[in-house]
Amino acid sequence: MSEHIPNVQQWERGPKIVAIGGGTGLSTMLRGLKKYTKNLTAIVTVADDGGGSGMLRRDIGMPPPGDIRHCMEALANTEPIMERLLTYRFTEGSLAGQSFGNLILAALNGVTGSFEEAVSQMSHVLAITGRVIPVTSADVQLEAVFENGTRVVGESKIYNFKKEQDCRISHVALLPERPAPLPAALEAIREADLILLGPGSLYTSVIPNLLVDGVSQAVAQSDAPKIYVCNIMTQEGETEGYTAADHLEALLAHGVPGLLDLCLANCAPVHPGLVEKYREEDAAPLVIDRERIAAMGLELEERALASTGGNYARHDPDKLAEAILEIYRRRAVRIFHGARRYILEE
User: Fold this and answer.
1) CATH architecture, domain defined by 1-45+181-346
2) How far apart are CA 280 and CA 277, in angstroms?
3) In a 3-state reduction of DSSP, which class is residue 344?
4) Residue 333, pLDDT score
């Protein structure tokens, strides 16, 4: 793969890639993509209300920093000791379970007076590649409505509530509805050469971004290729029994027409030991139902994207980035067209 990694000049002039989502899946993808382009923007959900992020949200009224922090860790160019500091979690006292990286963001939020500026300043401190932008600065809660008509408010409550109800999620919503986006997020989408949704938790990491006012519309109106990156596995407490097409239908139901062009899915087998481990958690490798995806008018690309090591079934950052850039190069040509450097082939 090394021969495909660009030199410094190519990296600085690389395509403007916008990745929309949150959680571990998004940060894993960013680790691979940052090798290919300097012009990388992560637009991240702020609906989390659990763990250390939820604690800071309740105690000092700041937006949840967890997903933002994960993305900045993935894009950071820092010394190893700083990386260890950012990911360190306190184990005792009132700070037990809290991340040091979260506390830095909390301090910067107080010093700068806004979460958006805190994220910007921490990005400079960590010398990150690209940008990380909260999708909104509004104080939002995530509500899930289930197929049996019951509902629950709070991202952290959805898992247990779904297990109790034993039925699928019908849809999710933000409270208050249609919060205002950060202008920088919409600007990044408008200027993008490539837009990525996922990977990550479907209802709690990816879809909440689409519920912010104007985000779905901006994505749909873009001329850039729009790719949904499928998860490797289904997710307990959220997407048990879902196929790839089920994920796509949920995305489109929460978005607008024209939201997606293509679905990128893993075709490499997951290690049998991991499959058994996930089966105990009521999760399984994602089934790629090709005919249903084709009937939706979407293209499908299948690549060997799963990591071959570790205790979790996750994407290999380098394989995923290489696949994304190969698809992009095949679909886009360098033609000067007004202010844009890349347009789709006709």
Assistant:
1) 3-Layer(aba) Sandwich (3.40)
2) 6
3) strand
4) 59
Sequence-ordered strand ranges (E) for the chain: 17-21, 40-44, 131-134, 141-146, 151-153, 169-175, 194-197, 226-229, 262-266, 299-303, 332-337, 340-344
CB atoms within 10 A of CB 126: 20
Determine the longest span between alpha carbons in the chain, in angstroms. 61
For strands 299-303 and 141-146, give the pairing.
unpaired
DSSP result, 209-248: HHTSTTHHHHHHH--S-EEEE--SB--TTT-TT-BHHHHH
Question: Which 3 state secondary structure label does DSSP give 89?
Answer: strand
The secondary element (H helix, E strand) that includes residue 189 is helix 183-191
Whole-number pLDDT of residue 343: 41
Q: pLDDT tens, 12-62? A: 999 999 999 998 999 999 999 999 999 999 999 999 988 888 888 888 889
CA distance 43 to 124: 17
pLDDT at 293 over 70: yes
Distance from first CA to last CA of the chain, Å, rounded?
29
pLDDT exceeds cutoff 50 at 336: no
CA distance 224 to 204: 25
- 3-class SS of residue 166: coil
pTM: 0.93
Find all residues with CB under 8 Å of 22, minimum gap 6, and list them: 44, 45, 48, 67, 70, 200, 201, 204, 205, 206, 208, 209
